[in-house]
Amino acid sequence: MNYTDNERAIIWLDAIIALSREQKLKLINKTKSPAAIFNDVSVVEDCVGTVISEAQYGYIRAAKELNVDDDIIKQLNKENITAITCMSDGYPSRYLQTSEPPLILYCKGNIDLLSSKHTFAIVGSRKTLPQILSIAEEFSSELAKNDVTIVTGLAEGVDTAVINGALQTGNIISIIPGGFRHIYPEFNRNLFEKVTQKGLVITERTLATVPKPYLFPERNRLIAGLADGLLVCSAGQKSGTSYTADYANEYGKNVFAFPYSLGVPSGEGCNALIKEYAMLCDSVDDIFLSLGVVKKKPEKTVQLTEQEQKVFACIKQGEIHIDLLLQKTGMKIYEITPVLTMLEIKKYIIKNPGNTYSAIK
Length: 361
What we know:
Elements: H1 5-14, H2 21-31, H3 34-39, H4 54-66, H5 69-78, E1 82-85, E2 104-109, E3 119-123, H6 130-145, E4 149-152, H7 158-166, E5 172-175, H8 189-198, E6 200-203, H9 215-226, E7 229-232, H10 240-250, E8 254-257, H11 268-276, E9 279-280, H12 284-291, H13 306-315, E10 320-321, H14 322-329, H15 333-345, E11 349-352, E12 356-359
Parallel strand pairs: 3-4, 3-7, 4-5, 5-6, 7-8, 8-9
Antiparallel strand pairs: 1-2, 2-6, 10-12, 11-12
Helix pairs in contact: 6-7, 9-10, 13-15
């Protein structure tokens, strides 16, 4: 990957950990030319005391003497990482409309997704009901099939379900809190690799950055900023997911949330958001309408056998235990087991803990 002088200078500047993102952006705005800083650091000397301290100015001078920009770019190229800076042609215009635009995006995968016509974020808690995970995956799949690029994280729970839903189309962007050498959670590394191959993974953090807790809220603003709207599938009373929703609301994006019954801990945050500013969402059509996207003609629906229809009709009335299901259908366990399996495969039902089943269509 070849970079302009300004892009190389921003990559170099971003590697100076003694400076905050805000300070780096102020220095760039001050000079209007990052390359000028790299060529002669004295151009920012008059920023000492206002933007940076004397000690930080010393770090900038030291970083220039080390001349590490070539090494950084070699490492990026070696690991197939593309750096999209705030002065690059491919920088997402959506971020320029936020109060905290990232200085740089390190990308692995299809960078064309950054300029998608329609984007939508789907987020939620790690601990989410199986039925909600299934619906989140279904929403993600249907949106992605209609050329909406899905934006989410890489955690277990909703993030994983959302990725699985959109992965086949490639319309998926996963945003991580740390650098590419520290994938979190580690057990999702295989999923991370799949997204880099079919979609896109991005971070604003340098390669070796460890994903510390304080970086997650920073990452959440990137999810909210890149999306045209956001759906919260689950959120506890004190959930980081709610912060993502707050960012989206602050940026003027449409925020949706699933409604929950009383007494469901993983839905308390969703209900609170609906009370405050989020729109209740009970159909993916709500999202299509907000984005102004007309759905493609649906594919031919999967046909159910007579036995499958009989069993599904019982489950559709509400969550039901296997024993009651056997009683209502009059079937034997060896007869109903393959029927339930086929209904799960056809994505009509989902099995919950405790041998209960719920309809998802």
